[in-house]
Each structure stands twice: as C-alpha cells, then as structure tokens.
Amino acid sequence: MSSTLPPGLQGEYEEHVSGGDASRWEIFDKIRHYTNAFIVQGEKILLGHKKRGFAKGMYNGFGGKVEHGETSADAALRELEEEAGIQAPLQHFAVLFFTLEGLESAFYIDIYRAADFSGDIVETDEMRPQWFRFPGSTADLPDIPLEHMWQTDKHWMPLLLSNRQFVGRADYKIVDGETRPVKWWIGKTHAS
Ligand SMILES: COc1nc(N)nc2c1ncn2[C@H]1C[C@H](O)[C@@H](COP(=O)(O)OP(=O)(O)OP(=O)(O)O)O1
C-alpha cells in the first residue's frame, strides 16, 4: 500500500481521498519543516485566526517553522505557547506535505494533537484563538470555518476529529488569481 504514497510521504496508509489526477506531482528541491498543533477536547476544537503574514485571515492550528537546532516536538510546544499562550501534552498525529506555486520550498508539516492543555488561552499578535464545535454537535459554538481554511483541510479534518492518523499531500497553484489545490492525496491508517 505504501507504493501509492505521493513523493514526500512515508508509511503504510490506505487511500482516503484523492483528486486532480490530470496533474503530475510537482518536483521540489528544498523542504521546509513546519509544525501545526490542534487541541481537540470533547466535541470542540481550538483553531487560530491568523492576524498577519502568511495565510493572513485564514483559520488553522497553531504552528510555524522548526528552527535550526530544534526538534519538531520542541517547535510544536514553542509555537503553541507563542501563538495561543498555552502548554499541552502534544502527540505527533499526522504529516502533511504541500507545494505552493511561487514558493521555493515545499512544506513538510508535522501535525500534533492534544486533548488537554494548561494555562490561559490568550490572543497574541499572530493568532486569535477560538473554539469551534464538531459537525453534528449541539454545543453553543460556531461550526468549523472550513470555508476560511486551506481547501484540502476539509478532506483530513474528519480524520483529525475522529482520532484516525493520516498522511497527505497537496500541490497548490494559482488559478484565476486564487490559490487552489490541483492535485491531492490523503491516506489514513488501516482500520484495526
Ligand atoms: C498549503 O496548505 C496548508 N494547509 C494547512 N492546513 N496548513 C498549512 C499549509 N501550508 C502551511 N501551513 C501551516 C504550517 C504552519 O503551521 C503555518 C505557517 O507558519 P508561519 O508561516 O506562520 O510560520 P512562523 O514560523 O510562525 O512564521 P513567522 O515567525 O515568520 O510569522 O501554516
């Protein structure tokens, strides 16, 4: 099954969803390592509204570049504290690999997940944190704002919420002035 994985990914996964078969996978020279952390508690998930820089105006988990000399796990903890003011027992959960037309490096993103956290959630210069309810939940919270997230997030968000590990790749291009996925593949762990 691993032979079906797109370049940039490793492991044993079964196809969950794919698209854009008319395109070939983009070739990449350089990879930049990033993290992205999600607090998933009961039937709610904590997301941040990006206030500046890359992907300003979009919602995402909390994360950023892994700095020189730092492990991915250290970077995930640092970015969560810098962007949301909290500490959490983050567990490595998934890997996403993206190329974005116009950027020199591909993104290799370690996704982390935790159910608990400590500290007070605070708005920072970079992110405004907010809780959202799971699809189907009656909690008094807004729905996950998928229309203001990266377009491929809707394919793996159900796996994150249902605690199914996954890997995925998407190649994004500028089409009619909009950044859109032209080819994608998401794989999930085999059912036990
Ligand atoms: C293209 O698809 C993407 N989808 C999702 N869901 N997340 C993505 C995608 N591409 C990048 N990301 C994530 C990876 C990181 O968590 C952030 C980007 O981090 P940022 O550029 O803000 O990194 P910092 O180190 O915080 O940067 P500055 O210190 O320069 O602000 O998006």
TrEMBL record:
Q: Which InterPro entries match?
A: 8ODP, NUDIX_hydrolase-like_dom_sf, NUDIX_hydrolase_CS, NUDIX_hydrolase_dom
Give the top-level enzyme category.
Answer: hydrolase
Domain Nudix hydrolase as annotated: residue spans: 30-165
Instruction: List the EC numbers from the record.
Output: 3.6.1.56
> What is the documented function of this protein?
Oxidized purine nucleoside triphosphate hydrolase which is a prominent sanitizer of the oxidized nucleotide pool. Catalyzes the hydrolysis of 2-oxo-dATP (2-hydroxy-dATP) into 2-oxo-dAMP. Also has a significant hydrolase activity toward 2-oxo-ATP, 8-oxo-dGTP and 8-oxo-dATP. Through the hydrolysis of oxidized purine nucleoside triphosphates, prevents their incorporation into DNA and the subsequent transversions A:T to C:G and G:C to T:A. Also catalyzes the hydrolysis of methylated purine nucleoside triphosphate preventing their integration into DNA.
Please give the cofactor(s) recorded in the UniProt entry for this protein. Mg(2+)
The molecule here is called Oxidized purine nucleoside triphosphate hydrolase
Instruction: Please give a single GO biological process term from the UniProt record.
Output: DNA protection
Q: How does it assemble?
A: Monomer.
Location within or outside the cell: Nucleus
| Native species | Guyanagaster necrorhizus
Name the CDD domains on file.
NUDIX_MTH1_Nudt1 (cd03427)
One Gene Ontology term, aspect cellular component: cytoplasm
